[in-house]
Amino acid sequence: MTEPGRRIAPSRVRADIAHNARVWNYWLGGGDNYPVDRAVGDRVTGMYPSIGEVARADRAFLGRVVRHLAGDVGIGQFLDIGTGLPTADNTHEVAQHTAPDARVVYVDNDPIVLAHARSLLTSSPEGASEYIEADARDPERILSAAGRTLDLRRPVVVMMLGILNFVLDTEEARGIVAKLMDALPSGSHLVLTHPTLELGGEGNEAAMRFWNENATPPITARSRFEFASFLDGLDILEPGIVSCSRWRAGAGGRTPEVAQFGAVGRKP
Ligand SMILES: C[S@@+](CC[C@H](N)C(=O)[O-])C[C@H]1O[C@@H](n2cnc3c(N)ncnc32)[C@H](O)[C@@H]1O
């Protein structure tokens, strides 16, 4: 584990190639990105104009899910893997607004997120927030480090929003999810979003090809069937697997779809 906020050696943050955390920050209207990120971000937007809506819908989904789980369900522990750069309404802020004693552990492997992690550590006095620099491909290490802040004998919400799409091998991605959920007790929840080519999104496929040739890390889309396989063995909360923009969005289900699945599963 690297201490958050520690000065990052310039060689660790690469300004010569676009990185997902920084481009996502750009699409969300943030300023923690470099010219190379903005150039790739603009090219992707040119090919796939709804990408900004996808990013905003994903964050809004995060807010609705965390409010529901911290408030209505009463789970006070969150493990947010693939956190992204700090933005408005980070997981601990949303959770602690509802439940001030909520405890949140953030995980990302991009050094730029570590460099900005201080903003994720502004926990309420009653709760806790912690940051771990780790790769999602190492669930054992994540669980062992998270266990210093979370009580893993009690239900935990595992959040993997927009990150399994960077684990290109579906079996490997399933294995990661299974290891995390197997280690946690009944009542734990898994929250997922994932890009897909099955919900429209004109230009999405070409934009992903462009991304894979010009940016890092490489990405893949998945079908509803593949996405559902990550939730095997869990009880999927209503309304099931939907565009993340439509998950309990109100407005009579008329919210426009985005090409990003969202779902929440509960471990029985
Ligand atoms: C699309 S952003 C999503 C950020 C946030 N979860 C959200 O939904 O707004 C994906 C994040 O996953 C991180 N990431 C990608 N691959 C990763 C890996 N193998 N291990 C840990 N983090 C990873 C990236 O650095 C980036 O911050």
Automatic annotation (TrEMBL):
Domain of life: Bacteria
GO BP annotations listed: methylation
Ranges in coiled-coil conformation: none
Listed EC numbers: 2.1.1.-
GO molecular function: methyltransferase activity
Signal peptide: none
SUPFAM superfamilies assigned to the protein according to its UniProt record, in alphabetical order: S-adenosyl-L-methionine-dependent methyltransferases
Keywords carried by this UniProt record: Methyltransferase, Transferase
Name used for this protein in its record: SAM-dependent methyltransferase
